[in-house]
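Hi R.,

As promised, here are both runs. First protein below:
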Amino acid sequence: MSKYRTHTCNELRKEDVNKKVSLSGWVNKKRDHGNLLFIDLRDNYGITQCIIDKGNERFAYLEKTQLETVIKIEGRVISRSEDTINKEISSGEIEVTIDDYEVLGTCKELPMPVFSDQEYAEEIRLKYRFLDLRRKKIHENIILRSKVISYIRNEMSELGFLEFQTPILTSSSPEGARDFLVPSRLNPGKFYALPQAPQQFKQLIMVSGFDKYFQIAPCFRDEDARADRSPGEFYQLDLEMSFVEQEDVFNVVERLLVNTFKTFSNKKLLYDKFPRISYSEAMLKYGSDKPDLRNPLIIKDITEIFIRDDVSFEIFKKLVKSGSKVRCIVTKNTKNKPRSFFDSIDKWAKEQGASGLAYFTFEKDTELSGKGPIGKFFSKEALLEIMKLTNAEIGDSIFLACGKQSELEKITALARDKIAEDLNLIDENVFGFCWIVDYPMFEIDESTNKIKFSHNPFSMPQGELTEKELDNPLELLAYQYDIVCNGIELSSGAIRNHKPELMYRLFSIAGYDKKHVDEKFSGMINALSYGAPPHGGIAPGIDRIVMLLANEKNIREVTMFPMNQNAQDLMMNAPSDVSPEQLKELNLSIKKKS
């Protein structure tokens, strides 16, 4: 038996009444009722209420004990009276009368309370993260994270995958995000890079003859923070499979995610078999390749309406003649919404940098008309055509935007979310998964006007790959896919290009010559030349999976020791200065900014 405890603080029940017990934990809360002092003792497992009366010589000491002091108590289990039972905790039918206690760890004055889930400034929470992690909600989030990772490991093993670890110190990659660089002491002037992902290594594992690999992999990218992305580092379920097509990867990942989300959440899944949505369809219908399928609003293209003679909305007509497009969002049965609702959406759009959102409502008294600022510019026939194109009905309203395609996609995607939020259309009790497929292999870089890879340079292009197809690279689609849930991208993946000559050709289209490919991807291109199997994989983000399961909006709430927005660890004071001796050893010097 442990000298510190006979039971945890979540273990005692009514059948333990009259037992002599010892418990250890943190003083979570105290309530002084004069002759009786109530102490909620907390450990990793839960809370037990302990009581001591004024007649006990230990009363005065406990009364002065600082919250979050670590103590051991010895006492006897008693039943609570019917009217004092606490159904919120598992040990709520009993309490422990304190005979003796011992301080195991003293506590200074707290910079923030632990027993409350009240929000505090990020700086305080991250500087004292060890205290923040004691708080109930975030403590439970981190335990959930551990359970989810263990569950995923077991599921992957059952699916026949083997877990391997790939190197942390590797070479820098010219593709993707910014690398974290590590200077080499033994090779002066040269640097390792921390892996942005185990991409090349997991492909090399397939070339090595292993069939199914996975890893809960740490990844490092020098990127700015976002609500769904940690600065610096994150973890992903990295997996790769040999002799597979796209559908084989989908089957494995769908089974894994359906089982995981059904095990760890009471929310419903919109689909057990995830819809496949092409990239082009997603950009048209949702304005984004990260659609939230809980949102019923669909974006429609109605550019053709503004070529008609019976439409006199000249601003849009002139823009359409110069190559712009018109897209719209229909809201169902919003005829009774006040003018302020529509105007607020228009004002919001302008705040996003757009020219606004035009709008009107379909009405019919004696005949069809458009009620609103621009309704008068459309004939009855034009309104009927719009209703046909958008599946709108009498009483529905329509918001319209006009501009270049990329600008339109951005504002309509944001507007779709904003309008759904204002109309309370999002069901928070469901998960809506989907696959985004058929990404273009290449795209035009808007800043240089040159062709570049759109997604992943190591992906296998679709089609017969004849010279004619390769001569029209912007029409090439790739076996690349993203998995999205509730508007959050969980992962990107692809069937890989395992043919060296095809890889050289594709890189040449993006402006890389053979020498460059050989230098930057020497390990990969060399390995593929020695008999590589067709293979593919994906890497769902662990942090984002847990964030969804914990119903959190920020990834920090499911990360044990996150950095702040400036990629600083306030608790450990990182990044920090290093000594001149360390720099000298690495053959480095720091050049101060002028």
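And here is the second one, sequence first, then its structure tokens:
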Amino acid sequence: MHEYRTHHCSQLRPEDVGQTVRLSGWVYRKRDFGNLLFIDLRDHYGVTQIVVERESTAFALTESLRSESVICVDGRVTSRGKDATNPNLPTGEIEVRAISIELLSEAADLPLPVFGNAEYPEEIRLRNRFLDLRREKLHANIVLRSNVIASLRRRMIDQGFTEFQTPILTASSPEGARDFLVPSRIHPGKFYALPQAPQMFKQLLMVAGFDRYFQIAPCFRDEDARADRSPGEFYQLDFEMSFVTQEDVFEAIEPVLHGVFEEFSQGKAVTPPPFPRIAYKESMLKYGSDKPDLRNPIEISDVTEVFRGGGFGVFAKMIEDGAVVRAIPAPGAGIRARSFFDGTNQWAKDEGFGGLGYINFKGGEGGGGVAKNLGPERVAQLVQQMKLGPDDGVFFSCDKASNAAKLSGLARTRIGQELDLIEKDTFKFCWIVDFPMYEWDDIEQKVAFSHNPFSMPQGEMEALVNKDPLDILAYQYDIVCNGIELSSGAIRNHKPEIMYKAFEIAGYDRSLVDEKFRGMINAFKYGAPPHGGSAPGVDRIVMLLADEPNIREVILFPMNQKAEDLMMGAPSEVSPKQLRELGIKFIGDGPKS
């Protein structure tokens, strides 16, 4: 017999009754019935019920066992009988009558229980992540993550992609988020950077002629945590393709994402390919966001002209000063109490905006709120334009276009949730396309890249030379599912002269491009194919499939909100000797070298 086990704890079935077996695992739960002790024995695979009789030599040891101690059990498989069957367990028709039990490792008092799914403070969970990971739900999430990655890898290979690994130590980039820097011992005063993404390397693979690349790539960005973004590091399904258009990229990755979501969605509906394509400008108008949740049926409208020069003086004056008005319908909300409308207006103020105007209709009558100021003709115009029903409500956001879009997008989400309009049990995908190549940076007071600086502008050199930079669109795209951005991507700028011009518009001269992107710009001078790709986030894919609101719940060893690893004590101070080897000296607060 094997030293530790003949079967795992989810393996035994009625056909094994009568066998003598050996199981090893953790004491998940213990129940004392006087003459009988029951132990739920758990390992990675599942749970088996162990029965210990008072007459057994193992009874005394079992009485003293703490939860999460590791034991090895020899016993005989018996049937539970119909009345004692547990339909929730794969092993629920059998139990193992213990003959002997060996204590392999005794557990101390637990800082948090493993049995059950009670909420515990983040600090306790992260400091004791090895225990947290034993808990059923979190353990299942991590197994799901592994299975999703295996499925992604298999599907990419089936699509003709080849997996390659790109460097982890690379050069710092002046674009994007803040880099994690790694000092060089051999080159004092110089630093490597951990890659924010394998962007340049995957493009160089295309120049090198590999045609279709992918990897499950670790990425490192020194940025603050959010519910859907882990601080420090994350993983993405990074891929790139040669001789492709934007549509070719979509057609390659849509079956992969659709297939993975169908495989692990537990029966939820998944948008079939081709996914809807929505222009950035249209998305910002209709949904107030470039990450629209299409489960929400509410669509925003521009009603600036309805209010222009009208009787609602506050809006009319703001429109003269360049503001716009966005209308957010609230289907069926007109018959709600006034507190619903006043509460939504107060919510907008609490979010830092000026508030929301509103009209509430009841039985098709003229409406309350700002309707009396607007006048019956304009109200009728509004009803016709927005196709409002007799008992609908509608909210209004008035501000400069960017702020009006932001508030209306947030209000659309809140109203959809409050009115229970969000479609359940479905994953709704879409592509956001035609992003602007540039945007105005209010802080730096200059034109800046709005997305990926290596994207091909639509119209190429002619657009860069002849168009207002803020009117230039790029072959850039995002894929969105249920309001979560899974990835950004682009058809790349593979022509050196177009790249120099694109960076010049954003304030980078030719010498800086040659210095910061020397590997890529030099490679493009020796024949580069048209190419493009994307990089869906693995963590976010698993977060959606696991129906978890926080990305921490699908990562093995996440950091806290302050980017600290409480279990391992990182970041930590290092010794003066290590600092001297790197030629580093702290000035002011910090360890002394």
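A quick note on the second one: The first strand starts at residue 20 and ends at 32. Let me know what you think.

Best,
J.
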